[in-house]
Structures are given as structure tokens and as C-alpha cells.
Amino acid sequence: MLQVDLPLIWQDEIQQQIFRQLLSCTSLPGTIADLSIHLGKSTALIGVLATFLDNTVTLHDIDGLVRDSDRRFLSSPNAPLSEARFIVADAAIPPTPDFNPNLGTLDSPEFGATVILAGQQVGSGELNLNLTGPGIPTQGRKQGLKMSLMGFHQDWFVRRQELVSNFPLGIDLILVDAVRVTVIPRTTQLI
Amino acid sequence: MEKVDNQWLRSLTALNPETVIQLASQLAKDWKVSYEAIPQKGLSLLQLQDSVFKEPYYLGEIPLSTAQVRLENADGQSYQGGVQVMSDLPDFATSLAICDAIFSNELIGCEQVAELIDRGRAIRQEEDRLRGAMLAKTRVDFSLLDGE
């Protein structure tokens, strides 16, 4: 019997389970999924990338958060910021003025980039967001669904508001910490 | 030990895959084996060039597997091996990649890999001889036409 180590997140079954959780988070924005049982020694960032990327999906890693060894497994081609389908950034560092990702086109808004922000904590922290929009229950809440974050610079959400202002063009945000993940699709309003 | 360079993979794939997998499993016991990239298995389009207009065309789909492995011992020394092979048998590409790492780095067990390569090479040589004979039978001699 041939025994070869392949970390959990690179195994099909695990990626399918992570995908299921990400689908749930996207359908119900503000939902926080804990991926720790799927990750082994990896982080939620790599778990999300492993699930979504392959050699046909481009990546732009602004702050060099993805190690070379993980890049080999992802086999995802590099692309400039304005063309990449997925963008990874350190959430503690605010976006630069020239942060202009692909917003898609009116014919194909699905080509808008997905931006993955890696911060310290999802679900608790000093930065509070109020989410409203499709998939977010508002019964009994005047201010929408509250979500707290730590290690996420506020400017990211200011810039995100600008980028989704011409809906359906825009970007989708995935927020991760070491093991947790949540999704803010472009349909969600931050109030 | 004689090296066969680029022919080693062709020779090993001439053998029953189970033979190669068994040897790789046995040799891998002395190492910590890990993948360096996700092993892939599936179909690939084979592109050729037509002989008249020299334009590319797709002949059809072929089964293709890739594997890239790292062998590491207790001392922290590591060696890599990798293959792309026209096969979709589970573990076959990985086994060939292990054989590549052992054979090309002349690690313990390389004699056993070399022995398998020799056996495979003999099979390929016999295949080549048969195909050569078949090809020779299809040769047409047009020399008689010149005399008319």
C-alpha cells in the first residue's frame, strides 16, 4: 500500500466540505464558518484558496501572504491586480489609492474579482459592521446584522462601498482569520 | 549501473503497473514521502501537426496523470521525483515519481529500479522490432515504374 502525505486541504473531499460552508456563508452573508476541523496545519486563507483556485483561475497576492509551497499546490497563474479573479491582501494594511480590481462587465458581472482579506479575528473585535441585504434576516433588527472584526482596516470597507456602487458590477469580499471565514457579497449593504 | 536517460519512463510503463507500484511501495517505506504538487489524473487533448499544411490539430483525448513527490529521510535530506504519464491508474504516476527520485538520485533501491527498467526495455525492444517488421511489410517499391 502506497503511503504518501497530502495535507487535508488538498484532498477533494475536504475541499468539497469547505465549499459547502463557503456556499452557505455566501447565501447568508454575515454567517461565520469555523473551518478548523478541515484545515489541519493550514490556515483558513489557504483552505479557501485551495477550494476555489486551480490552474485556470488567476490570483494576485498583494502582500505575499501565500507561501511558495502553497502556490505550487494551487498552480494558479499570477495576474495583475486589475485582471485577477482572486485577490489576497493583509486586512490590517489599508488599500492603496490605486486598488482597482476587476469589477466585471454588465454582460458578465461574474468576472468581478473576489477579494480575500486576512485579518486577526472574524466575529469579535473593535471594528463593527452592520449588514443588510439579501440573505440577511432583519426581523427585529433596525440596524441590520452586526458583525465585529479585529485586524481589519476600516478603509477596506470604505473602498468596497465605492467599488460596489454600480451594482451588478463590483467585488465580493471573503474575510478570514486563522480558522474562520465569512463572506460579504456585492449584494450586501454596509450601514 | 547503466543509465538509460530519457527512456527509463518508457521502459517502466511497458511493465505491468502493479509491479512498479509494488516496488515503489516497498522502497517508499524507508522514506517520508509527500507530494510537492497536487497529483492530477484525467484526460488531456493531444495536439499534433498535420504533415501537409503544418497546422496544429487535436488527435483526441489521452489519459494523463502527473505526480511530483519529495522523499525525505530522518537526517532531513530530501530528494524529488516527478512524472507525466499516459495512464489514469491510481497510484501509478506516484509510484513512477518515487522510482524517478530513487533512480535519478542513485538512492538505496536504485538497483531494483534499474532492474525493472532493463526488463521494461527488453519488452519495448521486442515491441519496436515487431512494429518495425510490420512497417517494413507495408513498404511499396516504386522502382519498377521508372522503367516504363
Description:
The complex is a heterodimer of chains A (191) and B (148). Chain A has helices at residues 12-27, 36-39, 44-52, 68-74, 155-163, and strands at 33-34, 59-61, 86-90, 114-118, 121-132, 145-150, 172-176, 180-184, 189-190. By secondary structure, chain A is an alpha/beta fold. Chain A has a single domain, classed as Rossmann fold, CATH 3.40.50. In chain A, α1 crosses α3. The mean pLDDT of chain A is 94. With 148 residues, chain B is an alpha+beta fold. Chain B has a domain at 17-107: Double Stranded RNA Binding Domain (2-Layer Sandwich). Chain B has five helices and four strands; from the N terminus they run ααββββααα. In chain B, strands 1, 2, 3 and 4 form a four-stranded antiparallel beta sheet that branches. In chain B, α2 (17-28) crosses α3 (92-104). The A-B interface holds A 1-6, 10, 72-73, 75 and B 21, 24-25, 28, 32-39, 69, 91, 94-95.
Helix content of chain A: 10-25%
Strand percentage of chain B? 25-35%
Radius of gyration of chain A, whole Å:
16 Å
Residue share in β-strands of chain A: 15-25%
> How is the biggest beta sheet of chain B arranged?
4 strands, antiparallel
Q: Indicate the radius of gyration of chain B in whole angstroms.
A: 20 Å
- SSE string of chain A, helix = H, strand = E? HEHHEHEEEEHEEE
- Ranges of chain B where pLDDT stays below 50 over 5 or more residues in a row are none
Could you say what the CATH architecture of chain A is? 3-Layer(aba) Sandwich
Q: What is the count of helical runs of chain A?
A: 5
Subunit organisation of the chains: heterodimer
Global structural class of chain B: alpha+beta
Low-confidence stretches of chain A: none
> What is the CATH domain class of chain A?
Alpha Beta
List the strand order in the largest sheet of chain A.
1-8-7-4-3-2
Q: What gap, in angstroms, lies between the N and C termini of chain B? A: 57 Å
Mind telling me the CATH class of the domain at 17-107 in chain B?
A: Alpha Beta
